[in-house]
Design brief:
Helix 1 crosses helix 4 and helix 2 runs parallel beside helix 3. Strands 3-4-2-1-5-6-7-11-8 form a nine-stranded mixed beta sheet, sandwiched between helices. It has a two-stranded antiparallel ribbon with strand order 9-10. By secondary structure, it is an alpha/beta fold.
Length: 233
């Protein structure tokens, strides 16, 4: 099967995560893919679904079907929708950090696939949780992202829905994680804070966040790959 895949992110077009995602698409055995990269020209993590509401968005065309966009991840999806007459999938990531539960409302990575869903394009967001003191093994992330893509792209995806994936933080010697389809966690991000001398600071630790049993935070923090189908309608 041939397909046109568009890759984007919120960490910027030169981030290691989008390069890992590109390598993952090359490992897909069931798809002969044309891959375009349409991603922000700068780091925009946490920008949510912000879009440009006036003025021109600069687009720098680079070699090998890459476009660096002076806009947000959601803008990038819109640019891609214009540049490519037919898109089979929008894939966002691999985000440098988890996008679990409540994170999905603030994540630019997830916003890119939400925008794709609004445009009636199937979409998958892939993020990588980082536990304190651990760095991401991008080669391992590539292998795991390819595993997940093989599974999800073979499944039917209803209009109005997208997949949100989180890879776990594991030691290189750990056994290969399971892929577990689960719900989004409903718990808030850590809200512990201090307020001193007119300054408000969050002091809660991400890894200590509350979790619903069996939901994505619980699954990913327990060392498996969480996969959630998110519904817009």
């Amino acid at each position: 099967m041939s397909a046109t895949l568009i890759l984007t992110n919120d960490d910027g077009i030169d981030a290691p995560g989008i390069k890992a995602l590109h390598r993952a698409t090359a490992k897909l055995s069931n798809i002969s893919a044309t891959v375009g990269i349409v991603a922000p020209d700068q780091h925009l993590s946490g920008c949510s679904h912000q879009i440009n509401r006036g003025g021109a968005i600069a687009v720098e065309q680079r070699p090998q079907q890459q476009y660096a966009v002076s806009g947000t991840p959601a803008d990038c999806t819109r640019v891609a929708h214009h540049v490519y007459p037919h898109i089979d999938w929008v894939l966002a990531g691999i985000n440098d950090g988890g996008n679990l539960g409540a994170d999905t409302y603030v994540s630019g990575t997830v916003a890119a696939v939400r925008e794709a869903t609004l445009l009636r394009i199937p979409a998958i967001a892939i993020s990588h949780y980082k536990s304190r003191g651990m760095s991401i093994n991008w080669d391992m992330a590539t292998q795991r992202a390819a595993r997940v893509l093989e599974v999800l792209m073979a499944k039917p995806l209803e209009s109005g829905k997208f997949w949100n994936v989180n890879l776990p933080a594991l030691d290189d010697s750990a056994p290969e994680p399971e892929i577990i389809i689960c719900s989004l966690c409903t718990q808030p991000l850590p809200t512990q804070a201090s307020f001193e001398a007119g300054n408000f600071r969050y002091t809660g630790a991400y890894q200590d966040r509350q979790r619903d049993s069996g939901a994505d935070v619980d699954i990913c923090f327990s060392g498996n790959i969480s996969v959630s189908k998110v519904s817009l309608w």
